[in-house]
Amino acid sequence: MAVNGTDFVMTRATMADLDDMLAAEHEAYGGVDPWPRYIFEQELNRTRERLYVVLRHPETNSLVGFMGASFRPGIREVHLTNITITPHWQGREVGTFFMSYLMTLAKQSRFSRVSLEVAVANERAIRFYERFGFQIIRERRNYYGKQQHAYDMALILKNGK
Ligand SMILES: CC(C)(COP(=O)(O)OP(=O)(O)OC[C@H]1O[C@@H](n2cnc3c(N)ncnc32)[C@H](O)[C@@H]1OP(=O)(O)O)[C@@H](O)C(=O)NCCC(=O)NCCS
């Protein structure tokens, strides 16, 4: 799996990846843990409706990043639940690779929409999503805690786009 000239190994995430995923998130959010371990465990156990993938460096086996999505066939929507790139690998198109991969999967399965939530304060992530064409649908006040608002963002997938 070549991303920006580097070959990585991408696999479906399992419980064996959990410690590394938690560590990556802790680092990427500056010491804050948005998701406790039990949420990750629940997510990884829901193998039918969820897809979590991890990207590792082939030589060191260190975790480069991971992405998770929830598939909602009833409404033909894929919901991005998590995307985390370790700080060392940020800005090197790994996030772009994950998003492109998710959109390809969604289109192959004939889903029509990708949705996500993002903290209003996370300007870099909002810019990142907007580059793919995501639009802010609405604001959710205090979604992540007191005065920690979120945006719902969505992208409509067009045939062949
Ligand atoms: C947001 C996030 C997922 C983006 O992933 P990423 O791998 O850093 O994204 P990319 O490298 O594909 O693109 C991001 C930026 O790098 C820049 N970039 C990409 N490749 C580059 C390169 N070769 N040289 C210089 N800049 C580059 C892009 O222009 C973009 O700039 P901007 O964010 O300042 O507008 C990642 O930064 C992250 O994990 N952040 C912490 C967790 C988080 O906020 N997750 C989202 C929660 S909703």
From TrEMBL:
Start and end residues of each N-acetyltransferase domain: 8-158
Keyword Secreted: no
Gene Ontology MF annotations: N-acetyltransferase activity
SUPFAM superfamilies, per database record: Acyl-CoA N-acyltransferases (Nat)
Keywords (A to Z) from UniProt: Acyltransferase, Cytoplasm, Transferase
Family note: Belongs to the acetyltransferase family. RimI subfamily.
Name of the featured protein: Ribosomal-protein-alanine acetyltransferase
Organism: Weissella viridescens
